[in-house]
Structures are given as C-alpha cells and as structure tokens.
Amino acid sequence: MAEDKRGLLAHGDGVAPHRHTDGQLLYPSAGVLVTTTERGTWVAPPNRVAWTPPGFEHHHRAYGKTDVRVVEISRTLCASLPDRPVVFAVSPLLREALLVLTNGRELRPDARDRLREVAVDELVDASEEALYLPEPADDRLRAVTDLLHADPATLSTLAELGRTAGAGERTLSRLFQAELGMSFPRWRSLLRVQHALVRLAEGDAVIDTATRLGWANPTSFIEAFTAIVGRTPGRYQAELRRGDR
C-alpha cells in the first residue's frame, strides 16, 4: 500500500488523470479540492473529505492554497465504504485521525492500521454530502449537461435546452431522474453551487457570485447554497480566509 501523505498545492494546480489499486480519502485541511471522474465531479472544501474507490480514473484541481491530506485505504477496508465516489462531512475524530496519519510522524504499522480503521468506522455511519455532481451516460442527456457546464448561469428551460440538444423535455426529465437520481432543477442548482464554492474560494463576493451564476437574487443563492453546503456563503468564505478546518 502507498504511504499516507500530505500535499501542498498552489491555486490552480492540478493532478493529471490517474487511478489507484486501493481506495483513497482526500481531505483538504485548507483550500478547496475539485476531483473529477467520468461519473461526475465533487468539490471538497476544508470541512469535507472525498472518497475515491479503487480503480476510478480521476484528476484533481486546487482552488486557493490547498493543503491536501491523502490516506490510502486497503481493499479489505474498502468493502465497508461506498463503491462510488462520495463526499462526507468530517467529524472531529475523523479529522484528527487523518491529520495524524499524514503529518509525517513515525507510527508503528499496527498503530497506523488502527487509525485507518478508525477513519473508516467514522465514515460508515456518516451521511453523504450533496457535493457530488453525477454525469450521465445517455448521449441526449449529456448534450444538455454539456450546455449547462459551458454556461451554468443560463436561464434556458429544459425544453429550450432540449431543442438545442435534439431531445424532448419529457424524455430529458425522465432521464434526469432515471440516470442521475434527481430533477433537472436540482442538478442545475448543484452545478451552480459547485461553481460557487470555487468562486468564493477565489475571493469573489457573495453578491457577484450569485449574479454570475444565474440566481435571481442573492437571497435565493444563499438559500440554495446553505441547503447543500450546510453553511451560508458568507460563513463558508470567512472560514476559508481564517483557515478554519
């Protein structure tokens, strides 16, 4: 198994596509880490940890000065965790386990193994965070999501997007639920919140972020952001500036 480690990434730094034979937990103790696979994209701010199962090709990009803690999880322990990429909230105990595993301290192999088991135990009962944006396999639906990725702020309806993509509104609505497990408005809102997490990490003002990402007003943006992230945009941005973890 590869060693647990700590990586320091500058704003905009990326890690090329790669895959692991073991599972991997990625915890940004500062900054924001965006991870992408063919199945979708997830954003991990400092109070979240991203789980990548074995075998998933993925790549990363950092926003803000990002301190990433990487913990490798053996295939045996992976059986207790989801078989798909997930974002989890970080409990105080999990945070301390991840920091100890990656701070360069010499640990006995059995002690390191027990800490990894503690980390996995903390995640088994943790709720999944709504920070993972799934991507479709259906060509018709992917044509629509590609349009939204290119312009998250677009006010186009699903019917209008469907005409551009060459698919009917009812068909697309059904595909959003069947393939992605959510409605079109929910998927678009999640896409915009992911972009907002990055913009706020880059220092954009809350009002500017709301306007540039297509919300009708700052209040609707704050409500959507808080419902998904669990804190207001202002509090999230203040925590990033203070380096809270």
UniProtKB/TrEMBL annotation:
It holds the Pfam family HTH_18. Residues 142-239 form the HTH araC/xylS-type domain. PROSITE patterns: HTH_ARAC_FAMILY_2. Residues 1-22 are annotated as: Disordered. The keyword Transcription applies. The keyword Disulfide bond does not apply. Transmembrane segments: none annotated. Keywords: DNA-binding, Transcription, Transcription regulation. PANTHER family: HTH-TYPE TRANSCRIPTIONAL REGULATOR NIMR (PTHR11019). This is Helix-turn-helix transcriptional regulator. It comes from Streptomyces roseoverticillatus.
